[in-house]
Design brief:
Elements: H1 2-31, H2 56-60, H3 102-136, H4 152-180, E1 189-196, E2 199-204, E3 210-214, E4 245-248, E5 252-259, E6 264-268, E7 273-277, E8 283-288, E9 293-299, E10 311-317, H5 319-328, H6 353-366, H7 372-376, H8 379-385
Parallel strand pairs: 1-5, 4-10
Antiparallel strand pairs: 1-2, 2-3, 5-8, 6-7, 6-9, 9-10
Helix pairs in contact: 3-4
The structure holds copper (II) ion.
Copper (II) ion binds next to loops.
């Protein structure tokens, strides 16, 4: 009886707790009944610019040319659909997302073929040794313990074997570390990602200074009438952004990150990419996307109360589509513009006067952290598009 009451008491507590949790959850969930919503045509896919469902964010972004092709969505980005299991998290999934960069594929292999087997083998060995000691040398079986205090052979072994295991792991690991910070080759597409509390701005300095501002898309119940909200075509809740970063596949990308306020981190799991965005400095890395698709990520450096609400959505498209997008955004492809942007300068790659000139021009274009982006990042953006206290905002 007592036990029964105690259990039901605990059960009541548990039910109350879960009700509290689901209560919070349903507030967020009710805002976006997945699939139940008569999905308005994905705004990013078909509607012309200026449609009532356009978020104010689009207005805050620099004025862009109208779409020039039916392949391009209202924001000039090629329409790309989400592929199940690629570039997005999957419920109940264990392990890493499928990787679409060379470093990511290598790292994935290393995780699955090197690290996991080594960890498993070491754990099993230590467990077996412990079990053996516990059983074989228990007091009943071993009433008079040995007084041995040294054994050279076993001491050499337990020093050397871990060293060998570490060296075996270090060889591919150091190679991967080096590959992750390899400078981009000439001809790479430069993407500059700038962290802000709490949204991302992007610049394409080699493509006529295209600029984007990307805010998280709010749920249906969180927007003002007529304001754009997230649909399933935009991406999962908390990961869909109003503006996607468009990048070409098969072309090296030079990623430069910086920040306007605190440290953020630009991270896309499917790219094996996580690069801190630090105010006052530029971090750089490079990667090449193998497959067209839609890839989602988030800020991965705790940057304040709305840290969880600054998603990253990358749309990787064939180079020709990328060029069309650049033109639709009012930019131009390198080579079709001033000669200074035709060659992407590499420090020390070419000391000729022309290259130096190009380097200087590019330096001026990418500039230090507090460059034009800082000034043009509209102060109103956050006010216009930051989500009001709502789902997931309770901690603020
Ligand atoms: Cu952040």
């Amino acid at each position: 009886m007592t036990i029964g009451m105690r259990i039901s008491g605990l059960k009541g507590l548990a039910i109350a707790a879960s009700l509290a949790c689901t209560g919070l959850g349903t507030i967020a969930g009710a805002a976006a009944p997945q699939g139940a919503v008569a999905a308005p045509a994905p705004q990013a896919a078909a509607e012309p610019a200026g449609v009532s469902n356009t978020a104010p964010t689009s207005a805050a972004a620099p004025a862009t040319a109208a779409p020039t092709s039916p392949l391009l969505a209202q924001n000039g980005a090629p329409a790309t659909t989400i592929q199940p299991g690629i570039g997005i998290p999957v419920d109940g999934e264990m392990g890493l997302q499928p990787q679409v960069t060379k470093n990511g594929q290598f790292a994935h292999w290393m995780h699955n073929a090197v690290l996991l087997p080594v960890i498993t083998a070491i754990c099993l060995l230590v467990l077996a040794l412990l079990g053996w000691v516990v059983v074989r040398y228990r007091r009943a079986a071993n009433p008079i313990p040995s007084k041995t205090s040294h054994n050279t052979t076993i001491e050499v072994l337990w020093t050397l074997l871990p060293v060998l295991a570490l060296v075996a792991i270090a060889v591919p690991s150091i190679g991967l570390l080096q590959a992750q910070f390899k400078p981009a080759p000439a001809g790479a597409v430069t993407l500059k990602a700038i962290g802000n509390q709490w949204y991302w701005t992007y610049q394409y300095p080699d493509h006529g200074g295209i600029e984007l501002t990307a805010n998280m898309l709010k749920e249906r119940g969180e927007v003002a009438p007529g304001e754009r909200f997230r649909t399933d075509a935009d991406g999962p809740r908390l990961l869909a952004a109003d503006n996607r970063v468009v990048l070409p596949v098969g072309v090296p990308i030079r990623l430069i990150t910086t920040s306007n306020d605190v440290i953020h981190s630009w991270a896309i799991p499917a790219f094996w990419m996580k690069l801190d965005a630090v105010p006052g400095r530029l971090n750089e890395t490079s990667f090449t996307i193998d497959k067209p698709g839609l890839y989602f990520g988030q800020c991965s450096e705790l940057c304040g109360p709305r840290h969880a609400y600054m998603p990253i959505a990358v749309q990787a498209v064939p180079p020709a589509q990328f060029a069309a997008w650049v033109r639709a955004k009012g930019g131009q492809m390198p080579g079709s513009a001033a000669p200074s942007s035709a060659v992407i300068p590499q420090p020390g790659a070419d000391a000729s006067a022309g290259a130096q000139e190009a380097a200087n021009a590019a330096d001026a274009a990418t500039g230090p952290a507090d460059n034009a982006a800082t000034e043009t990042a509209p102060a109103t953006t956050q006010g216009a598009t930051g989500n009001p206290a709502g789902a997931g905002n309770a901690g603020q």
